[in-house]
Amino acid sequence: MRMQCCMIVMFIFIVLVMPAAGKTIVIQGDLQIAGEVIQESENEIVIRTNDTKIAIPRDRLEALGYRIVQEQETPALPLPTPTPEAPSITEMELSPEARGVLESVVQPPFAIVPSATPAVASSDPLASLSEDMESRAPEPLPPTGALPPGVETTVGGLQPLSAVFGSAAGPSTPAAEEMPVSPSPLLAAVPAPQTPAPAPSSEEVAPEFRGIWITRFEWPSRDAQKCLKTIKTIFETLKRNHFNAAVFQVRGQADVLYRSKLEPWSPLIGGADPGFDPLKVAIEEAHSRGIELHAYVNLMPVWGGRTPPPRTEPLHAFWRYCQPGSNPNWTCYDSAGKPMKQNEYVYFSPGIPAVHDYLRRVVVDLVTRYDVDGIHFDRIRYPGPQYSKDPISVARFEGPGNPDNLSWKDWQRDQLTRMLNNIYGAIQATKPHVNVSCAAWGIYRKDRIDGYGRFSSGYHDYYQDTHRWIEQGVMDALMPMIYWNIPEPKPNFDTLTEDFVKHAAGRHIYAGMKTYGDFKETVAEVLFSRQIGAKGNVTFSYGGIDRKNQWVDFYRDVYREAAPIPAMPWKENPQTGTIVGTVMKPSGNDPVEDAVLQLSGRTEKWLSSNDGFFAMLNVQPGAGLQITAEKQGVGVAEPLTVSVAPGQVIRVEIQLKRPK
């Protein structure tokens, strides 16, 4: 999935079995679309691939930087030899623009195969879908971007569906029906089948998180009425089929899908206020049906467009903080000390405290103004193991930002943990009932499970220490993206889910599942999750289920009756308290960054952020607790004595004094 295009530029083709010879066309961008032209007009091009017609609006392509690179009379292209060993995939890593085109104009069935010259061999099997539609699944792809064995690659080549979806022994792919010759959005506002409700069980249904990721490519529209209708349809469908939680994306690449004074509107909804507040509407639709709404936020990406974002009001963070002349510059830098070049996204550097402050303000603003049940983070990681050698991070690592003398890799992991610690504390001080979760990389550590050493893992390749996050209490739940099957070959859903549940530290694990392949596998994964003590499942994604009309399958096979959301005892009956505050310079007017704070009875060291903010979580109740703070060369604070009760949030301000 995560194609870190550091060494080669990899194109992705939508390819199906070509019909007879005729006029063909290739449209190139982040995505290449190849097919037989069957109709052209000033406004759109209609391409046939297999039995499917794809209507492609010309203005959509132009807006995203796509262009026609080949248009000629040519015979149908030859098919490569089927490879039964090829992994079962339906999608690979796409940029946001490629994904947007794909999801807005392409109707299934379709197959996507990598294209490169030459093919690169690897021992790493490729998984499928992507995080937040453009890159959701943490497939175990090495950081080099190598391709797996058994996946043949050609330039302009075609691969039969059997090679993509599995061998003849696997589930068959039904023949495609001819699609209408018109642009067709991913979410058609069509009610789910009215399946008769099964008889109620005599036993009480156990609490279970039945969640679904709903990406920003699945519900917004520039047409306000269409957008409103889609939102309502989504929640009607979830209620009817006994889902109880929606993980609903509202922030993608430092732009948002709700009213904000901090960040601009997303282009996916027209780049301007649509005349209503989509998040407010979604919350109302969800809550009226007894469904929780978790606001799904991409945290670290800044921008992923082929062209820069427009100069909006408020000005996009890309223009403010990620330009060559930006001072400060918040961009990730590579191992050579150069600002990262855009592949899928430009990322904020997690080692910069001002980035922590900015993102915390965005999240707290969202939590303060909206009645969300949870905040769900995605892409909360470094973009790759070679990042980020930016000047600010390097200076802090070598100086006051590394009070525990950690190694470089451990220090990078610690930056994400510290940022989350402060965000969690700020939420506790605002609306403590709101829970925090994240989409965790599906393989936590590749060195902890036999046979997984060749795969990528969140801990080693992206400095995402998710198990520490729940141990430290900066996450209420993990939603690991385990988009692989239970049977061999590795990776295996059961092994990885069990690893997360085993290390849950009393918090919740909702195992993430894919929506492609045989639904019997989905049933097996839900049953296994229940058996080993996971608190539920979350499925990627709404559009994947909707395309295959699998609602009836969920309703019939795993979600026969409605179920309540499992309780979070540490939220409902807290046994510890929280201390939040700021550290100020001796003048009292300016905040202190990287002041070292300690709490009596605790061994860890906290650091104040760029705005002086800090948060101490899971403080054992008691009186006479002392807080100390100091920063070399700036000053030392008088010890501050506080008392903390269970569930209480104490706010303090600490002012350093100049050393005598």
Overview of this structure, please?
With 660 residues, the chain is α/β, with parallel strands linked by helices. An 8-stranded parallel β-barrel has the order 8-9-10-13-14-15-16-17, surrounded by 4 helices. Strands 1, 2, 3, 4, 5, 6 and 7 form a 7-stranded mixed sheet that branches. Strands 19, 20, 22, 23 and 24 form a 5-stranded antiparallel sheet that branches. The N and C termini lie far apart (57 Å). 50% of the residues are buried.
What layout of secondary structure does this protein have?
Elements: E1 11-14, E2 22-28, E3 31-40, E4 44-49, E5 52-57, H1 58-63, E6 67-74, H2 96-105, E7 112-115, H3 161-165, E8 209-214, H4 224-240, E9 245-251, H5 278-287, E10 292-298, E11 301-303, H6 317-321, E12 346-347, H7 353-369, E13 374-378, H8 391-397, H9 408-428, E14 435-438, H10 458-461, H11 466-472, E15 477-478, H12 493-502, E16 508-513, H13 519-532, E17 536-540, H14 542-548, H15 551-557, H16 569-572, E18 577-584, E19 596-599, E20 606-607, E21 613-619, E22 622-631, E23 635-636, E24 640-644, E25 649-655
Parallel strand pairs: 1-3, 8-9, 8-17, 9-10, 10-13, 13-14, 14-15, 15-16, 16-17, 18-25
Antiparallel strand pairs: 1-7, 2-3, 2-6, 3-4, 4-5, 11-12, 18-21, 19-20, 19-22, 22-23, 22-24
Helix pairs in contact: 4-5, 7-9, 12-13
Largest sheet: 8 strands, parallel, barrel
Taken from the alpha-carbon principal axes, the silhouette is: globular
Span between termini: 57 Å
Low-confidence stretches: 1-22, 69-135, 137-202
Helicity, as a percent range: 10-25%
Please report the total strand number as a whole number. 25
Instruction: Output mean pLDDT.
Output: 79
Instruction: Tell me the structural class.
Output: alpha/beta
Rg is 25 Å
- Order of strands, main sheet, comes to 8-9-10-13-14-15-16-17
